[in-house]
Specification:
The chain is mainly α. The chain has helices at residues 14-24, 28-39, 53-60, 66-73, 83-93, 102-114, 138-156, 193-208, 212-221, and strands at residues 2-3, 10-11, 174-177, 180-183. Residues 196-254 are annotated as: Disordered.
Length: 254
């Protein structure tokens, strides 16, 4: 490989690099394309603060060779890209070796960062953490795998006239916006609709329910002596002019 220019020009023996990688672990050189695309490159996002070296050690320590097979298959059009194996690999990246589900690993990391949950205010500590430190959810990982596979196919067929092999990026985790491609992070809403449906139903039920005692209270409140109005605070309307006698200590004046 010829690289550089002028006095910095040099030749790199790629064959020697491949031989060294194969000595470390057979099949590692072929898996590097998928590994690089999955862990982050110019076309795919990376795992926040995870880098390249530590995940590579996980690949090399896998005696069964499942991770090598995963990344090697990413460069093939009909490759067997197993999301369950990828999920287990990501769990190990986030120091969750006993967990195989990224959703479970995501929950465990969240509990580690937030500590004990206050049942009265469960979101208090959550606001103080950086959610970028959490592993991706299963839905986000699925889309990331699709994008990594598409990029790996391009690289693996770079010596062909059509490296994309007739594939469309919109079928591999991207959406088209004019001449631009935008990543689709996950399908379906980020929160279940049932959360909002139950709240709206409860609100409707509370508004529709009006007992006889409530109606009696409303009627009686209209019969109160008019002198009692002197003791009731009425918030001034927007049309009323401000005066020094107005209660404005708690209001901001522009």
């Amino acid at each position: 490989m010829d690289c550089g220019s002028g006095n910095s020009r040099r030749y790199i023996n790629v064959t020697n690099i491949v031989n060294v990688l194969e000595e470390r672990q057979p099949g590692l050189s072929r898996a590097l394309l998928g590994y690089h695309a999955f862990t982050g490159c110019d076309f795919t996002s990376s795992f926040y603060r995870k880098g390249k070296l530590n995940p590579l050690e996980i690949v090399e320590k896998d005696a069964a060779g499942r991770y090598l097979h995963l990344f090697t298959c990413m460069g093939e059009v009909d490759g067997d890209v197993n999301i369950e194996v990828a999920s287990e690999f990501v769990c190990k990246m986030y120091s969750q070796p006993k967990v195989r589900s990224v959703d479970e690993a995501r929950y465990n990391k969240l509990m580690q960062m937030t500590g004990k949950i206050d049942q009265d205010k469960p979101l208090t500590n959550i606001k103080r953490i950086d959610c970028a430190l959490l592993p991706p959810s299963h839905r986000a990982l699925d889309k990331k795998l699709q994008r990594a596979q598409y990029v790996s196919i391009l690289w693996n067929h770079a010596n062909f006239a059509c490296p994309d092999q007739g594939l469309s990026p919109t079928d591999y985790g991207w959406s088209a916006n004019g001449n631009l491609l935008q990543p689709v992070w996950f399908d379906e809403p980020s929160l279940p609709d049932a959360l909002f449906t139950d709240r709206d139903n409860n609100k409707d039920d509370s508004n529709d329910t009006c007992s006889d005692s409530d109606e009696t209270t409303i009627v009686k409140s209209t019969d109160v002596d008019s002198d009692a109005d002197d003791h009731i605070y009425h918030e001034p309307s927007d049309d009323e002019a401000w005066s020094e006698d107005s209660d404005t200590d708690s209001q901001d004046v522009d």
